[in-house]
Amino acid sequence: MGMNDQRVEAVLQLLRKQAPLSLKQDKFCNPACVQRFLKAKGDNVKKAAKSLRACLSWRDSIGIYHLIADEFSAELADGVAYVAGHDEESRPVLIFRIKQDYQKFHSQKRFTRLVVFTLEVAIGTMSKNMDQMIILFDASFYRSASAFINLLLPMLKIVADFYPRRLHSAFVIDPPSLFTYLWKGVRPFVELSTVTMVISSLDFEDSLEFNDFAAYPRASSLRFDQSLMEPTAKIGSSASSRFSFTVSHHFDSLKPWYLSLTDTSASKVGPTSPSPLGPALISPLNARSLSFASPAARTPRVGINDGNYSSRLTRKSLFPSTPMPPKSAAMASGGGKKVNHPRTPRPSFLQSPAVFFRRECHVSRTEKNREAFRPVLKLYRRPYDEMIYRSKMRPPLGGLISIVTPNLRRKHVSLSQRF
């Protein structure tokens, strides 16, 4: 018998000395569960036994053995908390999309039971060699950072105290603007702060890897595909030197009007002769007033159209602008030679090594969070399906509501029609 087995037996003996274990409690306190409590308490037998006894009392107080899906019918219909699937390493991924006014209309006990119910469903879907999960907190429904902190901290405490070593990583997605400041203040006092990361979904807007919603009709209907629109005739247009306003012929179309940057008018901005840059030099520099632009932006570029008109545009500009500052005496006397000013020396590693380490750690932490969230991005964007989630529930968590697939339902109707 190894040291781990001896510690497990010592914890179980301490538990049985305090009070006899029921059949369900004895089934819960399996060797794997006791080892997780031992690892969380640093292999301290007395602390692990005390924490495990508190966990058993807490499970009896909330009635965890009587949780069924029928108690959370409204939450399951709206997709408030559910198991979205599994990642590449077979870890269940939980998503909590709780709105800000949920706790106003529900008690704290019901909220705790909902969280525990979702955790138990995720544990039931784990394979034999997997004992960890990933939790995604969608904070986009919250406008108050303090309200979301009051929701997040109790959930992390439940996982840390009563489900030790179960959480692999947690992601807070799109929190309110002041959440980062509050999180920095409370982070040293949160046990699971090391595995909790803050993510912005805007960083993955350009990611087309998990942006295919063709298999999900409800999600694809919310996106407008411009390529599917047939070209129609125009009934009128309004053009200027910078923009073009066009009205579609069909008034019931999804996009009856649109703006374009094509130059449709006779007045051109820039040269009208053919050039490599096109007939009209429309850019963010000349699409706005140049009165407040920098001197470099106001000066026309040299070399366009073989330099024939560059000197002419230099003398007379198209737009009235602030005059250029006069040349200094040093430049005038030097004949236009470039003056090399002394540069500030760059800090070396031996002088300030903390600057280099701080910069590298800051960049690597942000990139590390993004790379850790990328494998579960597909599950986060996948639309919620109540039937798929209910199919993951093992009895008695599934409740009395049975799921009948459409194929079985059609087969039953056809058999009933025969007789």
TrEMBL record:
<dbReference type="InterPro" id="IPR036273">
    <property type="entry name" value="CRAL/TRIO_N_dom_sf"/>
</dbReference>
<dbReference type="Pfam" id="PF00650">
    <property type="entry name" value="CRAL_TRIO"/>
</dbReference>
<protein>
    <submittedName>
        <fullName>Phosphatidylinositol transfer protein 3-like</fullName>
    </submittedName>
</protein>
<feature type="domain" description="CRAL-TRIO">
    <location>
        <begin position="69"/>
        <end position="242"/>
    </location>
</feature>
<dbReference type="InterPro" id="IPR036865">
    <property type="entry name" value="CRAL-TRIO_dom_sf"/>
</dbReference>
<dbReference type="InterPro" id="IPR001251">
    <property type="entry name" value="CRAL-TRIO_dom"/>
</dbReference>
<feature type="region of interest" description="Disordered">
    <location>
        <begin position="314"/>
        <end position="345"/>
    </location>
</feature>
